[in-house]
Every structure is written in structure tokens, then in C-alpha cells.
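Onboarding guide, step 5: your first structure request.
Type a short instruction followed by the sequence, for example:

Predict the 3D structure of this protein.
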Amino acid sequence: MRAEPTKSEKPVSEKPRYPSRRKFLRRALIAGGATIGASALWSVFGERAWLQARRVPVSVPDLPAFLDGFTIAHLSDLHRGPFISEEHIREAARLAMAYTPDIVVLTGDHVSFKAKYAKSAVSALSSLKAEYGVYAVLGNHEYWTDEVGRVTQTHRDAGITVLINEAVGIAVGGTPWWLCGIDDMWEGKPDLERTLADVPDEIFKILLCHEPDYADEAAKHGIPLQLSGHSHGGQVRLPGKGPLVLPAHAWKYPYGLQRVGSSGTQVYTTSGVGVTFPPIRINCRPEVAIIRLTRA
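The system replies with C-alpha cells like these:
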């Protein structure tokens, strides 16, 4: 009979060696923690640079036929300054131009803290071109530089029409409509009566105003659509809870397309291109809004 092999002679098992349960759990916890940490860092620091083009169809009752399909590139809250680079704004302009808009509008807060950033901001916007022009209104941060005139003139020198309680008639296919721009609601002297003084009541019009809550006034004057920014969408949005913090004059219409009460007025509030302090975005990506008008 063949003798049983000694302990040293016993064949080695072919089963693979697995880490102990304790080691496995430790490795899983480390990997999971790293993933969660990376996700958190991306949300805080990466999402603020994660620009998107947001297509926004806006159905307007009695929209003139000549404006059916008219496209507006809407940029707001660029906040060129310590937290937002010129390249970030340049990328926003590239996104806007990819949709070949009929008109481009900028609804305030082009700079943060210092008027010196205005030149860099308009340089980054130099690719913005549209058949019916590029228009802007002022935001509270332009006033907070204490050199609002310098910021305004820098934009005008770059070919951007800045509307301050003004309206301009724009003919599409030989038929006019009116683009109206109001001064900043928070720090300026908005005067809608003056803005609309030369605008016929029956003519289709759009109002540009930095702060969205001014839409209540727009509704009183029968303006079909207001375009605004200011809120940044809250910058931090909790799932199922909405914006964590909102600035003054952006509490009623903080983000997206909303109807003003039972009126025929709608307001679109964009989440904006940049950030202000604290310079974070969570569950609230920056955007360029591509608004397409359609007949209801």
C-alpha cells in the first residue's frame, strides 16, 4: 500500500486565496470613502465649471407668426472676477454660438467686485454675433463696483447695446417687435413707464431685467415674457427641496420658466454662467439658455 503523504507532502489547494473578511471590508470602506470624497469635490469645485446649453421652448399665446421659431441665446451672471475666469465665459459664448441664435441677451452681473474685470468679460464675449444684435442690462454687481459707468461704457465700446430704462424696435421680416431693458431693481432706478413710453401697447415685447421678481410689474403692463438671472438657481439645490439660499428679489421666481400668477406673463430665470461667494455649485449646473419662441 502507498503510504499517506506527510503534512509537508500534501498537495497545495488550487482554490484562489481571498483576502480576509476584515481586509475586504476595510478596502471597501476606503474605496467607498474615496468615491464619495471625489464626488463631493466634483460637486463643489467641478460642477461650477460644468457648463451646459439648456434648450427652453417658450410657448406664447398670440405670438406673431414672424417670431415663431425665433431663437434667443440668454446669458446671465457671468461674474468675471476672482472665481470665474475669462476662459469660462469664452466657453459660454462658444456654447451660445453653436445654436446660431437670432439675438443674444445678457441679463446683468457681468463682473464681480471690480470694474477692471469688465474689459476681460467683453473680450471673452467677442465671439457673440447674431443677426438682430447683442443686448444687455445691468445687475446689482455692476453697481457694487462703484464704477457702473465704466462697466457700461466698456460693454458699449465692444458693440454690446446696454439698455437702461430703454426699448428698441427690432424688425423681423419687415415687422417690428420691441426689446425692453430695465435698470437694476436692487441698486438702480428701474422705470418701466419710461421704458415703455414709445412702445405701442399691441406690439409684442420682451423685457430684460436682472432680478426675476420684477415680473410682477411686467405682468401689470401686459408684457408676455421677461428674461432674468440673479438667483444662480440657488447655486446649491437639495434634492426634493430646491434652492438652499436665494438672494433678495429672486424668491418668487428663482429658476426656470414660470407663469406670473393668472396673468399672460411668463418669466424665465436662468441659473447663470458664473458664481459668486461662496464659489460652489451643487446639483445646479451653470447654463446658457437657448430660448425658442413658439406659438401657443
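Each response can be followed by summary notes, for example: The chain has seven helices and 14 strands.
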